[in-house]
Amino acid sequence: MSNDTKSVIIIGGGLVGSLCACFLAKRGYQIQVYEAREDLRKAKHQRGKSINLALSHRGRFALRSVGLEEKVLENAVPMEGRLLHSISNATKSIAYDKHTNQCIYSVSRNILNEILLTAAEKYPNVKLFFQCKLKDVFLKEGKCVIYDSKTKEILNIEADLIIGADGAFSRVRRCLQQTPLFHLNQSYIEHGYLELSVPSERGHLLVPNLLHIWPRGEFMMIALPNSDGSWTVTLFMSLEKFKEIDSKKKLKIFFEQHFPDAIDIIGKEALEREFLSSSPNYFISLKCNPYHFQDRALIIGDAAHAMVPFYGQGMNCGFEDCTVLDQLLEVHGKCSFDIVLEKFTQRRREDVHAICDLAMYNYIEMRDLVTRPTFHARKIIDDFLYKLLPTIWLPLYNSVSFTNTRYSVCMRNRQWQNKVLSIGLCILTVILFVSIFCLM
Ligand SMILES: Cc1cc2nc3c(=O)[nH]c(=O)nc-3n(C[C@H](O)[C@H](O)[C@H](O)COP(=O)(O)OP(=O)(O)OC[C@H]3O[C@@H](n4cnc5c(N)ncnc54)[C@H](O)[C@@H]3O)c2cc1C
């Protein structure tokens, strides 16, 4: 069977689903994308879900493969490093990559999704259906039951392959869960997030082209730039603490105590309005295995690996899923999907689990460790060794954000680097003691 006679249903026209449609359309498959929400290009913007995202190397690589990188970067704002705000209003900047000046990009979720949907729609072999929600899947038969809320009809659709790109609460995954030997490890963390904003008129109060962080140990606030000069501010904190701040007075005391400089930047009234009218959103982290069912179904993106957002890798990792699927189709896709899907699970499992763990670790780094001298000392050593031995000593953040190195390899590299530094430190300490002893 040639690709043009094979059909694929993609559930979810979010970031990962629409990018996947572009990849598969290029290969000639007949694609139908079913998205539960209305077409965001026609709908008004909704507050609540992070409105800008950090795009890094893996995401850019995937976008480049379908010819969209340039268009996305035209609409993105480069971020060259972090700017730390202390309680005393002092700031300190830390470049992401001092030697090669690589940066990450802040991109609007909606603009990115619009670019991807429009690109997917241009392929004659892609059909997009909005307000069409998946209700059930019959995996063995490759059948989907979909409710079209425009016509109030139930649609029964069949395809050779069903791809679930339907986010963290994926219905396709729920069906996979009913198959034997499917493992799912799901956890919520006690912290949530709430979005605030700095309008473009006040945007100049923040230093441009940096990711701003207000690290406060147990919690933190960050700000990412938007292309119109405004900023999206996100406060990450325990759900209990959010609950405590339930009046203008408590909010004022809290911000004066922890984020004094941010009051003027956000604006007192806007802060009160935005904070007190919203409730925090929760985080879910989930790992599962396998990602496929026979030659019939596959889950990608958050459906397969929702992670906490502290490494800025959720979307990038989902985009990398599309790259990996495409590479496997190139090598093994001539006959049937079963080898491709099996290899996808084998290839992604270790990497995806590694980035889920790294994302959890990075919350501690961002909200707490960045304020400690040991963090800065390690950064100096890492930068020095990276400059000296660029092919051997790649710091963790750089390998995750600026290369395609498998996430599991990034993690293992960090482990051996830690060992080398510990041994080095022990040797130095011994030399120091021996020298002091000899001098006495
Ligand atoms: C606060 C926050 C900040 C983040 N920051 C970053 C960042 O800086 N960088 C980064 O890389 N990642 C970031 N992420 C993660 C990123 O948002 C996700 O990884 C990414 O959106 C996943 O895309 P997706 O397409 O897999 O899922 P989603 O974006 O959730 O899309 C799923 C789509 O499926 C549709 N759908 C759901 N159920 C059905 C159904 N039954 N039938 C039909 N359609 C359905 C939904 O309507 C939706 O459009 C962040 C996440 C959060 C919460």
Mean pLDDT: 94
Report low-confidence residues grouped into runs of 5 or more: none
CATH class of one domain: Alpha Beta
State the end-to-end CA separation: 83 Å
Evaluate the radius of gyration. Answer: 23 Å
Strand content: 15-25%
CATH superfamily of one domain: FAD/NAD(P)-binding domain
Main β sheet profile: 7 strands, mixed
Category from helices, strands and their pairing: alpha/beta
The CATH topology of one domain comes to FAD/NAD(P)-binding domain
Q: In percent, how helical is the residue content?
A: 40-55%
Bound molecules: flavin-adenine dinucleotide
How does the overall form come out from the CA principal axes?
globular
CATH architecture of one domain: 3-Layer(bba) Sandwich
Number of strands: 19
State the strand order across the main sheet. 6-5-14-15-16-13-17
What is the count of helical runs?
15
Report on the architecture of this protein.
Its cofactor is FAD. The chain crosses the membrane at residues 6-25, 420-439. Belongs to the aromatic-ring hydroxylase family. KMO subfamily. One of its GO terms (cellular component) is mitochondrial outer membrane. It is built from 15 helices and 19 strands. The protein is globular. Strands 6-5-14-15-16-13-17 form a 7-stranded mixed sheet. A 6-stranded mixed sheet has the order 8-2-1-12-19-18. The termini are far apart. The chain is an alpha/beta fold. Helix 1 runs parallel beside helix 11, helix 2 crosses helix 11 and helix 11 runs antiparallel to helix 12 (337-367). 38% of the residues are buried. It has helices at 15-26, 57-65, 69-74, 109-122, 171-176, 239-244, 248-258, 260-266, 268-276, 302-305, 314-332, 337-367, 373-388, 396-402, 407-439, and strands at 7-11, 30-34, 52-55, 77-79, 81-85, 91-95, 104-108, 126-129, 132-138, 143-148, 153-158, 161-164, 183-198, 211-215, 220-225, 231-238, 281-289, 292-293, 297-299. Bound molecules: flavin-adenine dinucleotide (FAD). Residues 11-17, 34-37, 50, 53-54, 133-134, 165-167, 171, 193, 234, 301-303, 309, 312-316, 318 line the site of flavin-adenine dinucleotide (FAD).
